[in-house]
Structure to design on (238 residues):
């Protein structure tokens, strides 16, 4: 399988090809939060890019998760912490969701052949789903406001390593090699390595650094979130 890694949504037009599978990754924290919602039984997630659209959904009675700059928005029911989305609060429910970076990346890639949400929380599940149904995968890193970040690239490196262990990896570009080198440096002390990153510091400044350890754990929510283009919703793929 050909694997490529797009380091920023701003660069996605230069990576996309017909019939791609795209895996959107926002390690801190939207991808893990989406996985946690669906793992705890949420019926579906409606990703929206803008705050005003999320507010409109809220006025219509929807449950809304909304975050900007690592902080929960005042009008929302939830923020962007996986721990917000407990079984009791989301099972059987539909949740509208908007974040600083993750939902913007989903919007950027929504026209691709198939779109999965991936992170460490579901790395093995999304890897197997990709192997079953894709010839070329582009990992689209949400980054931070269209800039590259460490944690999303580390996921790309881990994903590439797992593909290599299955003898399934065909490297699409140097971004994959860079991610793999980064992963080799970090994988034995991942949290400590990530503590030097910009976004970890944002989590600390906003009192949610405890989310980082959860977001870096592998296979804690082994679902495959799949974006349904016709519905404009994310559901767990079966």
């Amino acid at each position: 399988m050909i694997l490529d890694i797009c380091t920023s949504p701003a660069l996605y037009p230069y990576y996309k090809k017909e019939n791609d599978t795209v895996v959107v990754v926002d390690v801190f924290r939207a991808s893990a939060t989406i996985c946690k919602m669906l793992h705890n039984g949420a019926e579906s997630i409606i990703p929206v890019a803008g705050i005003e659209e999320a507010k409109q959904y809220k006025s219509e009675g929807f449950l809304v998760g909304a975050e900007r700059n690592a902080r929960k928005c005042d009008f929302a029911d939830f923020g962007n912490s996986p721990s917000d989305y407990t079984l009791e609060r989301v099972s059987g429910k539909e949740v509208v969701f908007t974040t600083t970076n993750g939902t913007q990346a989903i919007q950027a890639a929504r026209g691709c052949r198939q779109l999965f949400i991936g992170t460490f929380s579901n790395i093995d599940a999304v890897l197997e789903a990709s192997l079953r149904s894709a010839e070329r995968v582009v990992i689209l890193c949400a980054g931070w406001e269209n800039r590259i970040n460490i944690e999303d690239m580390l996921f790309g490196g881990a994903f590439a390593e797992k593909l290599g262990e299955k003898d399934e990896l065909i490297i699409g570009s140097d971004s994959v090699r860079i991610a793999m080198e980064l992963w080799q440096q970090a994988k034995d002390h991942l949290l400590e390595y990530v503590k030097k990153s910009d976004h970890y510091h944002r989590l600390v400044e906003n009192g949610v650094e405890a989310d980082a350890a959860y977001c870096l754990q592998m296979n804690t929510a082994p679902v495959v979130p799949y974006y349904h283009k016709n519905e404009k919703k994310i559901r767990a793929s079966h």
Q: What stands out?
A: The two ends are 21 Å apart (CA to CA).
